[in-house]
Design a protein that fits this description.
D-Maltodextrin-Binding Protein, domain 2, seven-stranded mixed beta sheet, two-stranded antiparallel sheet, 10 helices, 11 strands
């Protein structure tokens, strides 16, 4: 039987996710030559090329795609072994893989700072993606816990509410709608919008809201970043639909205005989610309990 080290598998999976030696090296906090060496050693052990590189671009070979699926399963099994032994020892220590949708990055770091003060022996590894990427991580069982809006309908997941997530329409202070009161949603139909990219949970909720009220405002630009959208709205590019958790400071300073639209803000919730079939480690269970029992009031204060 061929011998693959856990380090080689971890390195390969990061290269496969990032499709970049340099970005994988950044994530692993090692040099690019170190990543390249691990990949060469792994290919030597496998006896097949696992990826092809043209310039800075990487593509997995057919063998690499197959290897990726088995490597994910193998690393997952090893983590479950580690978690099971930690559970037997009854230790509140270990490592938790936490993924969050990008909108949650405005309050999750604050929560993790407080969590680490209470549980310094638990390491939390944080990943930030849009909803579509989070769904892929969940479906492949590559993550322990997820912070997202609503749980996916296509997967068997357990989701617990821990905080509210109000969403509304924002504008620059000089926009004509900023002075209207109790404007109907129909008033938005002729105004241009700057929106999140497809695959974003915020974008999906916005599209459902507009479809329910039969309005289709013109979209002038899609952007994958809440920060860039905020700057575009402040510059007068258009309106946007965002979580109010992302714009507290801009509203407070007067750089952005929350429009007074009938039926808005919509109040949704933040959930801590995981696959129902997943056996949570003691460390992951502690983080989940912390979020459910303590995070809500903290989020209200911070964002």
């Amino acid at each position: 039987m061929r011998r693959y080290t856990l380090r080689q598998l971890d390195t390969f999976l990061d290269v496969a996710r990032e499709l970049s030696i340099s970005r994988a090296a950044e994530k692993l906090h090692v040099t690019q030559p170190a990543v390249s060496m691990q990949m060469r050693q792994l290919e030597d052990a496998v006896g097949l090329p696992l990826y092809e590189q043209t310039g800075r671009k990487i593509r997995l070979t057919d063998a690499g795609l197959d290897f990726q699926q088995y490597a994910i399963a193998a690393v997952g099994q090893l983590k479950q072994l580690e978690d099971a032994m930690a559970e037997r020892r009854g230790l509140k220590r270990g490592r938790v893989e936490l993924a969050i949708v990008s909108t949650a990055k405005y309050f999750v770091p604050m929560l993790l700072v407080l969590f680490r003060k209470k549980f310094p022996a638990i390491e939390v590894v944080l990943q930030i993606h849009n909803r579509e990427s989070i769904m892929n991580l969940l479906s492949r069982n590559e993550i322990d816990l997820v912070i997202m809006g609503h749980a996916p309908d296509t997967l068997e997941c357990t989701a617990n509410i821990f905080a509210t997530n109000p969403l509304g329409i924002i504008s620059a202070p000089q926009h004509p709608l900023s002075r209207r009161r109790k404007a109907p949603l129909a008033a938005l139909k002729d105004h241009e919008f700057v929106v999140r990219e497809k695959g974003s949970g915020t974008r999906q909720l916005m599209e459902r809201l507009f479809a329910e009220h039969d309005i289709n405002p013109p979209i002038v630009m899609e952007m994958p970043s809440n920060e860039t959208i905020k700057q575009a709205v402040m510059a007068g590019m258009g309106l946007s639909f965002l979580s109010l958790r992302t714009i507290r400071h801009e509203l407070g300073s007067g750089h952005l205005v929350l429009l007074d639209i009938e039926g808005l803000p919509i109040v949704r919730h933040w959930h801590v989610t995981h696959l129902t079939s997943k056996r949570l480690s003691p460390a992951a269970s502690v983080l989940k309990t912390f979020l459910i029992e303590e995070a809500g009031p903290l989020v209200n204060i911070w964002a």
